Each structure stands twice: as structure tokens, then as C-alpha cells.
């Protein structure tokens, strides 16, 4: 198997990828994540996921490189990571009582063959009606400022929501693991690997 690189410094993505018990290296892919004019959430997450993988691939031939990105959409408005606590609070206020769409893109690039795989997992999260004090307490306790939409389901965020609809719960946290297993299988890697 070619060495595996996760084009991310996200602790969340690293923790998810560790579930596969594969050795990997995590390298931050510092790219401009700004949304282009009139870019849809699906196009944005696709462009960023592939761009992250390609950036790391430039200096790592003979590797499998994983790129992933997530955006959140509420009533047609796209949220990424908040710039500050006030923006985080505003994102959660706008999510209150709404169905929120989390789109998580995944790219796998084989730098030996040039083969590229891409897919996107969509998770629909129905938020409860949130009181302002509840939002304030959540932001103070969780500090989810490195998360798209100012929300992370793996801790106290679960208290803010009523329902999650998804093929893969890992996608909501930031890395569509089931999709990655499909891509690795397409590259001839059958999991789990023998010890």
C-alpha cells in the first residue's frame, strides 16, 4: 500500500481516520478557503477537498492523499468556520429550529497513477429551538470555533439537535469514512489490513 497522507491538521479528521488502523501522516494544506462568487455549497466543498489533496500531492509522489472539507447551509446561506465568537453565535441563532445541511467532500488522490476519486456525503441535522442563554453556554463550554457552522456533534452539541439523517455519522464530524473505504477499495486496498 502506498503511504497515506491526510491533507489536514484537523484533530477531528485525524481521530476519524485512526479508526481504520492505517498508518498515516497528517499535513496541513494551507489553501485559500474563500467561497467564489455564486459558488454552491456542493461546488465549494468539491473544489476545496480536491485543492487540499492536490496541494499536498505536489511534494509527495508515490502517496495516497486524502483531502476533505465541510460546509454548512441554512436556508440557502452557506456557513464555514466562524471568524469570531460573535459570528459563531449568529450561526447558531440562524440554525435554531431549522434543518441544517452539512456537506462533507472527500477526495483521494493517487500521486503514483494520477487517479482521483471524489464524493460528497450530505447530513441533515434538525436543530431544536435554541434559547440565547443555551447558545452562550454551549459556545463557552465547547469553543467550536474551528468547526463549520459552529457546531460539533461529538460532545455537548448533541444537546442542540433533535435529529440527524446521514449515511455515515463520521461525515458530520468531518471525514466521510465509508466513502473513503470505497475509494481505498477502488485502489485495491481491502480493509482491515492483516497485522
- Strand percentage: 25-35%
CATH class: Alpha Beta
Order of helices and strands: EHEHEEHEEHEHH
* Largest sheet report: 7 strands, mixed
Mean pLDDT: 94
Helix content: 25-40%
Number of strands: 7
Determine Rg (CA atoms, Å): 17 Å
General form = globular
Model regions low in confidence, pLDDT < 50 over at least 5 residues? none
The CATH architecture assignment turns out to be Alpha-Beta Complex
What CATH calls the topology is Maf protein
The secondary structure category is: alpha/beta
Q: Number of folding domains?
A: 1
**Number of discrete helical segments:** 6
Q: What is the first-to-last residue Cα distance?
A: 13 Å
Layout of secondary structure:
Elements: E1 4-6, H1 11-18, E2 24-26, H2 41-57, E3 64-74, E4 77-79, H3 85-95, E5 99-110, E6 116-127, H4 132-142, E7 161-165, H5 169-173, H6 177-186
Textual characterization of the structure:
The chain is an alpha/beta fold and 195 residues long. The chain has a single domain, classed as Maf protein (Alpha-Beta Complex). The protein is 32% helix and 25% strand. The chain contains 6 helices and 7 strands; from the N terminus they run βαβαββαββαβαα. The chain has helices spanning 11-18, 41-57, 85-95, 132-142, 169-173, 177-186, and strands spanning 4-6, 24-26, 64-74, 77-79, 99-110, 116-127, 161-165. Strands 1, 2, 3, 4, 5, 6 and 7 form a 7-stranded mixed β-sheet that branches. Helix 3 (85-95) packs across helix 4. The two termini are 13 Å apart. 37% of the residues are buried. The model has no long low-confidence stretch (mean pLDDT 94).
